[in-house]
Amino acid sequence: MSVRNRIEIIRGDITEVCVDAVVNAANSSLLGGGGVDGAIHRAAGGELYEACKLLNGCNTGEAKITLGYKLPVKYIIHTVGPIWAGGLTNEPELLAACYQNCFEIALKNNIQTIAFPNISTGIYGYPKKEAALIAKYEVEKILKAYTLFKKVIFVIFDDENYTIYSELFDLSVL
Length: 174
Ligand code: AR6
Known about the structure:
By secondary structure, the chain is of the alpha/beta class. It contains five helices and six strands; from the N terminus they run ββααββαβαβα. The protein has helices spanning 35-44, 46-53, 91-108, 128-145, 159-168; strands spanning 7-11, 21-26, 63-67, 75-80, 113-116, 151-156. It has a six-stranded mixed sheet with strand order 1-6-5-2-4-3, with helices on both faces. The structure holds ligand AR6.
């Protein structure tokens, strides 16, 4: 299947998506927070918090894995996006590293279907269009390189990101 056919854009709540793994846009404590992180912790339950306590945090751009607990997924991959600070502190490289490291963990765990939120584009303030271009570039690169990945779903929560992703992936021609 072509790269484009293995990418899906959906609107909704990532805690309701059934895939092998969902990605969490966490903070470096990995102990929960607001936004998608809060939603994932609430839905997965207290066992996720206990598991995260054992992970010793996570640096920006890196990723760590837990089970999915009460979510309808096998795994949660927690990654820490960069906080936007004007673009002069390696934010693009760090955001790209989030996607790369999530896929590296996915490969090691035989994860074939994976759902991403729009990392860093909420509380962390990354400009949405720029973040979407990085997400698209990294996902297409990995799908070209690895046929193991059968489906990558971008789960879009807000209107602005949905408009951006619709244009970027030309949803009108589907
Ligand atoms: N499902 C899918 N996407 C969601 C959901 C959801 N349930 N809820 C929000 N989004 P954010 P960040 C979207 O702020 O910018 C947390 O406190 C949202 O519309 O969740 O990486 C962490 O603990 C946006 O497009 O994450 C960190 O401290 C995207 O998810 C900090 O926020 C990311 O927004 C991380 O900030």
